[in-house]
């Protein structure tokens, strides 16, 4: 979906950074926004998203309300919200002002109860789209490697970001250079 914008909601601030790193390792332009970032860093990330510098905004519920984001093509609930009303605020980020949009929720067996509460609140059953095993297996190795590298990066930078810390952009750019060096070393072996 070239030119499209997506917001991906996670439950934790740490998950925003991790998922941003994973997606960047896969060649996608993603940037995190969460409550552990200073207001200026959050605004910087938001402006990069709105300007089209990054097409994927990985966020916590800090971005589900009150932000002026006029055009979002897709909302992905990477983590189902524990509060059903938060679901409405999240998916309300797409399909505004007569535009079309898509909302996708990834649900595991531990989140089923929250999912059922959401269906009860909105008064309808949401359509299911089970994962196709063949398609998942095609991407598994690539995604697993991207996750491994993201975990390494987080470990290298000391794990959690400090309160008011960066948007991860500087760290990610620095890290992408480190990653390239590591891949070259692996290829030589």
UniProtKB/TrEMBL annotation:
One of its GO terms (cellular component) is cytosol. Pfam families: Helicase_C. Residues 1-137 form the Helicase C-terminal domain. Keywords: ATP-binding, Helicase, Hydrolase, Nucleotide-binding. The keyword Nucleotide-binding applies. SMART domains: HELICc (SM00490). It comes from the Eukaryota. SUPFAM superfamilies: P-loop containing nucleoside triphosphate hydrolases. GO terms for molecular function: ATP binding; hydrolase activity; RNA helicase activity. Gene3D superfamilies: P-loop containing nucleotide triphosphate hydrolases. This is Uncharacterized protein MANES_13G099900.
């Amino acid at each position: 979906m070239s030119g499209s914008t997506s917001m991906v909601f996670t439950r934790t601030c740490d998950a925003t950074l991790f998922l941003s790193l994973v997606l960047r390792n896969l060649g996608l332009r993603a940037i995190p926004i969460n409550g552990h970032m200073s207001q200026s860093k959050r605004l910087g990330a938001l402006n990069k998203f709105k300007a089209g510098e990054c097409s994927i905004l990985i966020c916590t519920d800090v971005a589900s309300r009150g932000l002026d984001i006029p055009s979002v093509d897709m909302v992905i609930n990477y983590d189902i919200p524990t509060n059903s009303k938060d679901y409405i605020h999240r998916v309300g980020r797409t399909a505004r002002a007569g535009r079309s949009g898509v909302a996708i929720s990834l649900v595991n067996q531990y989140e089923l109860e929250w999912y059922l509460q959401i269906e009860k609140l909105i008064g309808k059953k949401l359509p299911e789209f089970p994962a196709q095993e063949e398609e998942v297996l095609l991407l598994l190795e690539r995604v697993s490697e991207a996750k491994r590298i993201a975990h390494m990066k987080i470990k290298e930078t000391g794990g959690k970001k400090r309160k008011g810390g960066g948007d991860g952009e500087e760290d990610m750019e620095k890290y992408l250079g480190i990653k390239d060096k590591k891949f070259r070393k692996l290829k030589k072996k």
